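We modelled the chain as a single entity of 230 amino acids. Its sequence is:
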Amino acid sequence: MTSLAATGRAAGGRLAEVFYSIQGEGATAGLPAVFVRLQGCSVGCAWCDTKYSWDPAAGSAVELDPLVEEVSAYPCRRAVVTGGEPLESSMFVPLLRALGSRGFSIEVETSGILPPPPSVDRAIQWNVSLKLAGSGVDEARRLSPDAIRSFLARDAWWKFVVTNDTDVSEVLQLVERFALPRARILLQPEAVRRKDLLERSPGVVDACKRHGFGFSPRLHVLLWDAKRGV
């Protein structure tokens, strides 16, 4: 796959941060990965732990080629493109193409409000975190049926942040409404502090056992508490 930069067309955007760590959540939790956090998010979840990535004018301006070189300098060929909401970034598609041309396995962390661009590699792992009512976001903004159907066609993983049984009941309603495959659903406790994570995880595990869902840890919170960039 050829990057836009290789064709002579420049691409740039705004970046919140790049760091090398392990994937803390989802189906590939524990695997080393380079995280590319793109700037900008219009969703605005009340419990978001990366609010510094919301403002599309914040972060730093970057060009595609230097960014890809920085990512490629790490001893790892797994990249997690996140945000913010990465699909809102003008750099999203060029970045995925450029990373694909370097042989990266790519994961995308998204809220699912926008459909996956049809032009990107179908081998990308989509980690879709649909937002529940407890996020404080209006349903019309946080749930896009067309986008959800598009992600279903891409064999996405569905990750839900839950705090109580009411959230779990809402997940079950969404499973039925959109025919989400239970084998690809992960429940994750809402927690940005190690103490809260340890307290809330057993209840979420019980819900997973009752309903046949997977459990998503937050390894970065367990290991480093609320530290940024790990």
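As a brief sanity check on the tokenised model: The chain is about 30% helix and 20% strand. Residues 1-9 have pLDDT under 50 and may be disordered.
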